[in-house]
Amino acid sequence: MSVTVPSPQGRAFGYADEVSALRQTLADPDRSGCLIIGPAGSGRTTVMNRALEQLERDVAIFRLRGSDLLRDRALGILEILLSQEGVTRDIGPGAALSVVARVVDRSPGVPIVQLDNANLVDVESISVLCQLADAHRIRLVVGAESIRPPVDLIATLWLGGSMVRIDLDGLDEGAIAALLESPGAIDRSTTEVLRDTGGNPRLVNQLVFGLDQTRAHERILWNIPTELRPILEIIAMVDAAPYEALAELCSAEEIDDLADKGLVTMDRGRGSGVRLSERVIAETLKAHVMPAHSLSLFKVYESVVEVAALTGRALFGYLRWGLSLGFGQAEDTVFTAVGAANTEGRYSDAADLITAPRWQTSRILLELVRADKERGNLEEGRRTFDRLVARLADGSSDGASTRGEDVTGSDADDASYLSRLACMDIRLTDPRTPEDLVVQWARERLTSPADTGRLDVTRARFEQRGGRFDEGMRLAEAVYRDHACLTRHRLRACAIIGIGQVTRGQVDLGLRYIDQAELMFGLAGLTSYEVEDAAPQIFVARYLAGDWAGARRSVRQARTGDRMIDFAGALVDARTGHPARAQSTLHTLLSHFQETDLIDITRVGHAAKRYVDAQLGRLSNPDALLDSTSAETRPDQYSWWSEFEARLFDLQALAVTRPDPAAARLHALGVEAAEIGATTMAAGALMEAARLGHETAAHALAEVADTIDGGIGDLARATAEGIGGSDPSALLDAARLALEFGSVVACAELAKRAQKRAVEDGDRTAAREARILIGNSTRTVRFSTPGPKLHAVLTEFERKLVDGVMAGRSSHDLGELHHLSARTIEWHLTRIYRRLQVANRRELRDVVAAWGDDP
After folding, report:
1. How far is CA 551 from its chain centroid?
2. Residue 308 CA to chain centroid, in angstroms?
3. Residue 513: what pLDDT?
4. How far is CA 749 from CA 368, 717, 722, 770, in A?
5. Residue ranges of the HTH luxR-type domain (predicted)?
6. What is the mean pLDDT of residues 356-369?
7. In-domain check, residue 392
8. Which of 355, 422, 538, 563 is the most exposed place for a label (fewest CB within 10 A)?
């Protein structure tokens, strides 16, 4: 007897109502479409396909899908429709609107445009589709992960009432489990699998591999004695359990046996605990713990654990488990747990634990503000912070209260709380508007060095980010010199002094402070915030000083995460003449954005990418840089260095095609930096302007260079002397110094000026040396991609000619070998010389030999 398996539509996805709502929207003539929001894998595409499959056959459907390749390609997603009309995508959005309107008008009735992955579509294409939908020329069905730009254009139609918005939370896990266990699940054909899953990739994966994976995990646990399975389940529920507590439930030998089998690992040192080795095993165990069994396990664990002795993840896991079962906890315990989670950088976990029991005491809400801010939920954090400030204004008190009740203690009398609140005020405020700070009066009420040090060093960082370097240095010096302040506050102060000294031109002294700050990272008592606050400053200080190897090393040693490591490497590559490598890294980095980035990676990264694109001849619209305006950034993440560096990159990109306006703007940028004391940064902009021929910039550079030491100071002085003088040898000295410093592009520019002067003076030796420097620098910039470089630059025939030259063959010998005349061989060699920036065979042999030695 055959068994009919019902279609899982609506059951496996839990989206029957959503599919119905989408169909009704498309049938409503007053609606222009539907906006479906849901994370990747939540069934967004499946819901759209299900609804569209049930429409009438004669309805025209245009299916479009965004991707990383189309994100920055203007009108890229409409390119096929435009090409059908014989139009390229180089036209403006207005003309594109007319062309696409003609295409859709030829369809019977009102066609439907399905736009999936709308977050990866260019603004111009979405603007065209929105206008057509608003005019009811099309019905737009859009799937996106969030309402971030450019999807906010579509959200405008929803806010106006013409579109319907549907939010998807995720697949129905219970229904998926039922589908997996239904009769015939294993023997379904591919067609049946696609039919029953609606093509959802996550559900297909679950259906095809889910049972095997679950069985594999179960097989791992089969060899565990039945009496020890509850021990593993308890560990899975709390993430980490103290060894002493588990020893009360089973023997030490049994725990050791679990460790020998690779099921658990035992940490050592403070806050140590027993954890499950494999995350997937923990998830499997948790998934099979039913609520009643969970309650019994919790009571068993609670009877042997000493809550007061729990720390870190063990405390957090215990509280989270208890709160999920309805067991309340003391305010002090919750505060300790969320503070530890924030300290470890687990901000989402901290916020979830705070909101679960809805604690309303001020110090816990302040931890919630910190968690919201660090995970990018700035508006919610600001609202909670304003509530805390209002409590102080009202004189309310809740220092040691029970949940939501103000009973004892006063916030205004708690110095530690006031210090932390004032610090959060600083961290939420735009550094460009210090007048917006609202709780800085608290400084007068602080007496403990721990509290004053915390606030003063946070204010010092605030002043520095706003470009007020002298005030920032003054505050940081006071904290660093006061040994009564906590180590972690002195570490932050040391990093601030280091970058401040480097910025002001005292490069050698600043790097000594930076060395000291890096050594302090190894001291006890540090939290995740010191890494987030000090590590970027250490990188920037070494980056400004031209310590390229140190800059790369600093982010790795501080363990700031892969994004920061890649970003630091890309900036160093951009500055040291490896634009192709920097371009590849930046393309990957900028393909997605993270609110939790330690510095403004997006802003500086986009500017750096425009610069390396210009160097490689791939900048699509260089004239747009003439009218570029300062990009907005999140107020709490603003940094004067980030703004300066982004402007410097953009002006350097502009200089590739528009040197005259770029030189004037670079000079103005350098003068602006010098006026606020950032002489090292000013020197970088002035050197660029001087090399472009700006006479005033050369004089300004000479004045600034005398106040800077270190390698960057030597390069600035040499550049000023070389450009200001008339001897080509001075320019060659500056070019060699630039090459030694690592600035390959500067070396090429200085060598070109030296070559011009040498030709005018008839100095053949200087002209030849300049030509060699130019060739070496140009090759480094153009052919900086990793791998077999000659294969990327020369054709197969040209490589054979180069091999012959390396073997010492003459043009006549090469001609006989390849059945060509000696003149034809010389013509090909001339092309190779020009492409590799060399003048003759000897230079060609030197270049190929050096090139082959590159890693």
Report:
1. 18
2. 38
3. 93
4. 53, 16, 12, 10
5. 791-848
6. 77
7. no
8. 355
Angle at 826 between CA 824 and CA 827, to 5 degrees: 65
d(CA 447, CA 458): 16
In a domain, 50, yes or no: yes
Token output for 260: 């020998």
| Residue 799 resides in a domain | yes
DSSP strand pairing (112-116 vs 264-266): unpaired
Question: What SS3 string covers 749-800?
Answer: HHHHHHHHHHHHHCCHHHHHHHHHHHHHHHHHHHCCCCCCHHHHHCCHHHHH
Quick one: pLDDT at residue 294? 82
- Predicted TM-score of the model (pTM): 0.63
Q: Examine the fold and report which residue of 137, 153, 170 is the final residue of a domain before the chain moves on.
A: 170
Q: CA-to-CA distance for 44 and 107, rounded, in angstroms? A: 26
Average pLDDT over residues 312-332: 78
The number of C-alpha atoms within 13 Å of 85 and in the hemisphere containing its C-beta is 19
Q: Are 141 and 115 in contact (CB under 8 A)?
A: yes
The mean-pLDDT minimum among 23-37, 515-529, 650-664 falls in 515-529
Among candidate residues 200, 189, 259, the one with its CA nearest the CA of residue 224: 259
Half-sphere exposure of 288 (CA within 13 A, CB side): 16
SS3 for 807-855 is CCCCHHHHHHHHCCCHHHHHHHHHHHHHHHCCCCHHHHHHHHHHHHHCC
SS3 220: helix
pLDDT confidence band for 6 (50 / 70 / 90): very low
Q: Which residues pair with 62 in a beta bridge?
A: 113
Token pair 């606020």 is found at 676
> Does the pLDDT value for residue 7 go beyond 70?
no
Query: What does the alpha-carbon distance between residue 761 and residue 114 come to, in Å, rounded to a whole number?
Result: 68
What is residue 111's three-state secondary structure?
coil
pLDDT band at 98 (very low <50, low <70, confident <90, very high): confident
* Predicted pLDDT at 310: 80
Which of 186-195, 424-433, 473-482, 768-777 has the lowest average pLDDT?
186-195
Q: Kindly indicate the confidence band of residue 735, based on its pLDDT and cuts at 50, 70 and 90.
A: confident
3-state DSSP assignment of residue 144: strand
Instruction: Tell me the CA distances in angstroms from 7 to 173, 182, 184, 394, 571, one per residue in order.
Output: 16, 11, 13, 60, 53
pLDDT at 744: 79
Q: Report the percentage of the chain scoring pLDDT > 90.
A: 12
Task: Compute φ and ψ for 302, nearest 5 degrees.
Answer: -60, -30
State how far the alpha carbon of 71 is from the alpha carbons of 312, 418, 636, in Å: 42, 46, 27
Evaluate whether residue 280 is within a structural domain.
no
Mean pLDDT of the chain: 78
Structural domain boundaries, residue 467 = 462-560
Final residue of a structural domain among 170, 199, 216: 170
Peptide bond into 150 cis (omega under 30): yes
Whole-number pLDDT of residue 182: 56
362-374 and 415-428 helices, crossing angle to 10°? 30
Task: Please state the rounded mean pLDDT for residues 328-357.
Answer: 75
For position 88, what pLDDT does the model report?
Answer: 78
Can you give the pLDDT at residue 633? Answer: 65
Domain with residue 830: its CATH number is: 1.10.10.10
Evaluate whether 341 touches 313 at the Cβ level (below 8 Å).
no
